[in-house]
Here is the input.
Amino acid sequence: MKKVLASFAFVCLLSNALMAQKGYSGPRSLGVSFVLNDFLSAQRIRSSSLESVLRDKNWADFNEMEPGLGITYFKGLRKHIDFAGTLAASYVNYPLPNRPRASGDALLLAADASVNLKMFPDEYWVSPYLIAGVGAGKYKSNYAAFLPLGGGLRVNFFEEATLFVTTQYRIPVTADNAAYHFVYSVGISGVIGKK
Here is the structure.
């Protein structure tokens, strides 16, 4: 219940920030990305600490992560705020909490809606941003809700295409059907429709 109330308070505060900026409607774009799901690093951090994982160089290697593909829709809401909606699909061996790990991979579908709080507006070539949102996922017959929090970096190519790199830490809201994990993505998006 605490997570639900915290999520509600977060959305209320975020909506105030969205309404405070005026007079801008940015371009719409559609992107495709390569996704890596990192369950192992999050599990190691939760069983010890971030400091010990970094000190012992115990972060998961690429071959210990689970790959996938994602499609993202971006829409500029304000000069420093974008909406991002992502649908990602991966074949993973998902570690469900308090259950033995199943053998073999299955399809994990995850969708999230988030805001990207950009340091610089779209006219700049490079802009780091923070990510906050809500999401839902389906793995086998399990449905889950999560909060994606993280950051990213955009590289703007002549206001027509964008290279984006993101890192999200997904915090489960439904603790029985979701696991804490990182999602890394690299993709490219192009402007659709009129600017």
User: Anything to note?
Assistant: The first strand starts at residue 28 and ends at 38. The longest helix spans residues 2-20.
